[in-house]
Amino acid sequence: MPTLLKNNTSPFARIAHAALIDAAVPDLTVQIADQWNDDPALLAVNSAGRVPCLVLDDGTAIAECLLIARHADNVGEAPPPGNDAPQILSIAGLALGVCDAAVQTLVGRKIVSGNFADTAFDASPIGRKRRRTMVDGLAELDARIDAAPGERLDLATIAAVTALDYVALRFPGADWVPDTPRLEALRAATAERPAFRDTRPFL
């Protein structure tokens, strides 16, 4: 049976897990891995030491969320949602940029002070660039996303909701987060879909 190595906060791991669930990939199991401390089980299958990583029955390991999502469409029992459409790929890429900027902000904080809560890094030129990416990216996602989800959750929907949730998780109450009524409506409309309900991040 395929095994997904992930942690409970990574937005990239959530995208992969949500795609696998929504595609109805059979017999999926999940293993929590600690990517921050060179988890031996993770390093054994992914030399980069990053989550997510999907290990197939024959030992083949697939890393990176978009590649795992592509595999999910190929092997899942649910009909594919059309993830190859340029518009879906464009929106998904935008959402991944928001996720990456958020993660890199936390990494920067960790490097500068050793503390995710210390915001000194945010005032640096790189920190300001990361902030701008999150703000502009969320605003553009809100303008472009289809707030009415389909029967299947396409990659744009999965990535956009994941980006919104991850920013809320890591920067709670931040006054710089833009209003995103369409994204929030989409999140509410899909909250009880198994792909989102069963992958909610927590600290």
From TrEMBL:
InterPro entries: Glutathione-S-Trfase_C_sf, Glutathione_S-Trfase_N, Thioredoxin-like_sf. Pfam families: GST_N_2. Residues 1-80 form the GST N-terminal domain. It comes from the Bacteria. Transmembrane segments: none annotated. This is GST N-terminal domain-containing protein. It comes from Aurantimonas manganoxydans (strain ATCC BAA-1229 / DSM 21871 / SI85-9A1).
